[in-house]
Design goal:
DoxX, transmembrane helix, 2% strand, DoxX family membrane protein, 8 helices, two-stranded antiparallel sheet, membrane, 182 residues, mainly alpha
């Protein structure tokens, strides 16, 4: 058995990933809760990230110009939306990881937020959470084995199969719009 197969299928690996998943989830839910309950305002942070973007020390060239453009032209004008999305997103990422519900989705969006915070110039715990999130994400479905995903993923697969068979799309047993017998 290869290491990756063991990591993605073994019950002991799932137990270890569950502990890691709960730890990372707690970090996210805690950060989100503090922002939700503490009057979070991303305006100052966004202005700082635009005013002093991450730059090369030797040339002062902006390293992530597209991201800086996004912050300046989308995030700042919509800071009221950002003020809701960031804390709510962090809280939901944490909830998903702790409960093991939509675990891979939660880990993916956690990593995306970590990357965005890093590109805005905030190091803090982001590299650590990014690494741990990557480990959880790499475990695949095994990351949610001891959580809601154990019940949710089979239901989602069944629903997806039903949907693709009815509409004649995807590879759920359809060929040229006709459902094939199984």
């Amino acid at each position: 058995m290869t290491i990756m197969r063991w990591f993605k299928e073994n019950v002991w690996a799932a137990a270890a990933i569950t502990l890691l998943r709960i730890y990372v989830g707690w970090q996210w839910i805690d950060a989100g809760w503090h922002k939700l309950s503490g009057g979070f305002d991303a305006g100052g942070f966004l202005k700082g990230a635009v005013g002093k973007p991450v730059a090369d020390h030797a040339t002062n060239a902006v390293l992530f110009p597209n991201f800086t453009y996004f912050l300046e032209h989308f995030a700042l004008p919509n800071v009221k939306v950002i003020n809701v999305m960031i804390p709510l997103g962090e809280f939901l990422i944490g909830l998903g990881l702790i409960l093991g519900g939509l675990t891979l989705t939660a880990a993916f969006f956690g990593m995306m937020l970590n990357f965005m915070f890093l590109m805005a110039g905030t190091v803090s715990t982001n590299p650590w959470l990014l690494l741990l999130g990557f480990i959880v994400f790499t475990a695949g479905a095994n990351a949610g084995r001891f959580g809601i995903d154990a019940y949710l993923l089979p239901l989602l697969r069944k629903g997806w199969t039903k949907l693709t068979r009815k509409t004649g799309t995807g590879n759920g047993g359809a060929l040229n719009g006709k459902v094939l017998p199984h």
